[in-house]
Design goal:
Blueprint: E1 2-7, H1 13-26, E2 30-35, H2 40-47, E3 51-54, E4 62-63, E5 66-67, H3 69-75, H4 77-96, E6 101-105, H5 109-117, E7 121-125, H6 138-151, E8 156-159, E9 186-189, H7 195-204, E10 209-212, H8 219-225, E11 228-231, H9 235-243, E12 248-250, H10 257-269, E13 272-274, H11 280-289, H12 291-296, H13 309-323, H14 349-352, H15 354-357
Parallel strand pairs: 1-2, 1-6, 2-3, 6-7, 7-8, 9-10, 9-11, 11-12, 12-13
Antiparallel strand pairs: 4-5
Helix pairs in contact: 1-2, 4-5
Length: 365
């Protein structure tokens, strides 16, 4: 089958999952990658030669370590103006490439084009777990709504997570390519906005560390050799650290509920601890004193921390078999497998035309 595969450009976790799942699908299918500009170098360096198409992407607006939700929403307005034109372009590409199915990792643009073009859509991502763990807090509710909108429409969805997911994490083979040891260094995985605050703390304590992302550093080698990881609370870095039994101290970005939820779950795995930039001077020495406790603790039941690529490939192949021989999956009469939902998503009637008016609309998952 001919598959169009897209992913979000915010962070590299979505791109990292694509770099694992995409090549596995290429064994039996023809895969075209729709890539945001910000992640193109990362993906090409891992996937090599292939068919790449350009796609727009949303991004968070930040002030220091804090995500500014209102500013992020305001800055998406120019994208909304370009949305109809992007849809026309993407629909033309889907038809020209004779795409049979679309797989999206938290990208809304290609799924909307696929829905209008009548191409079935599989959504796979991690952020959707916030919709399953609602809390009586404004940030929890608004994040759940935002993630649902940013997923775009789908016929089937698979949530990938070490907690509350349909399948466990997807781990890259490169992570296990180097011998696991402890050279006494800290792997510091931070974006530029946090480095001016965190690095002086490490220097004041005379600690040895490696900063990533950095084109001069081999990330996989560095994480295998480090004593522990200091990072923002992205899902992929957390599961890779746990897989290598590297204790992780996370600084969740303020205003980003998904990362705060990830940080909470890290503490429940007993493999790491959550802190803030204000508490770092106090929490870091305490964390270092208890490294052996984090290494020796067992992950409690209910968490999925081992590589689960076999499960997601099976789920994807089931979806693709259902797509074979038909241009679109029905969004009425949904069938459930496991914890994932097979639901449609409302589509703009003005864009979709007569076909959309006969679609059974479903609520938010």
């Amino acid at each position: 089958m001919r598959i169009a595969y897209s992913f979000a450009g915010e962070g590299l976790g979505h791109a990292a999952r694509t770099s694992v799942i995409g090549p596995l699908l290429e064994h039996d299918h023809n895969v075209v990658y729709f890539v945001p500009d910000v992640a193109r170098d990362f993906v090409v360096s891992r996937l090599g030669k292939g068919h790449y198409e350009r796609i727009l992407h949303f991004s968070f607006q930040k002030k220091g370590e804090r995500v500014r939700l209102l500013a992020s929403i305001f800055c998406t307005l120019p994208l909304l103006v370009r949305f109809p034109f992007e849809m026309m372009r993407l629909i033309d590409r889907l038809r020209a490439l004779r795409i049979d199915a679309v797989i999206s990792d938290f990208d809304p643009f290609l799924p909307w084009a696929a829905r209008i073009a009548g191409v079935p859509i599989l959504q796979i991502n991690h952020p959707g777990v916030v919709q399953r763990l609602l809390r009586p807090r404004f940030i929890s509710l608004i994040t759940a709504l935002a993630t649902r909108l940013l997923e775009g429409p789908w016929n089937d969805r698979i949530l990938i997570s070490f907690y509350n997911g349909d399948v466990g994490p997807i781990l890259r083979e490169e992570i296990f390519a180097h011998p696991v040891r402890d050279d006494g260094t800290i792997l510091v995985n931070l974006k530029q906005c946090l480095r001016p605050v965190v690095v002086p703390v490490l220097d004041a304590m005379h600690l040895r560390y490696r900063l990533v992302p950095d084109p001069r550093e081999n990330f996989e080698q560095a994480i295998a050799a480090c004593s522990f990881v200091l990072s923002t609370a992205g899902h992929q870095i957390i599961v890779e650290s746990i897989a290598l039994n590297k204790p992780i101290l996370v600084i969740p970005q303020r205003g980003q509920w998904e990362q705060q939820l990830n940080a909470e779950m890290v503490e429940k795995t007993q493999k790491g601890k959550s802190t803030t930039v204000e508490r770092l001077r106090v929490d870091l020495p305490d964390f270092r004193r208890h490294l052996e406790r984090y290494r020796s603790s067992r992950v409690p039941a209910g968490f999925m921390t081992s590589d689960d690529r076999k499960s997601i490939l099976q789920r994807i192949e089931v979806f693709l078999r259902e797509c074979r021989g038909r241009r679109a999956l029905p969004v009425s009469n949904p069938r459930h497998r496991g914890r994932s939902s097979r639901r449609g998503s409302p589509i703009p009637l003005a864009l979709a035309g007569k076909t959309a008016r006969t679609t059974v609309l479903r609520g938010v998952s």
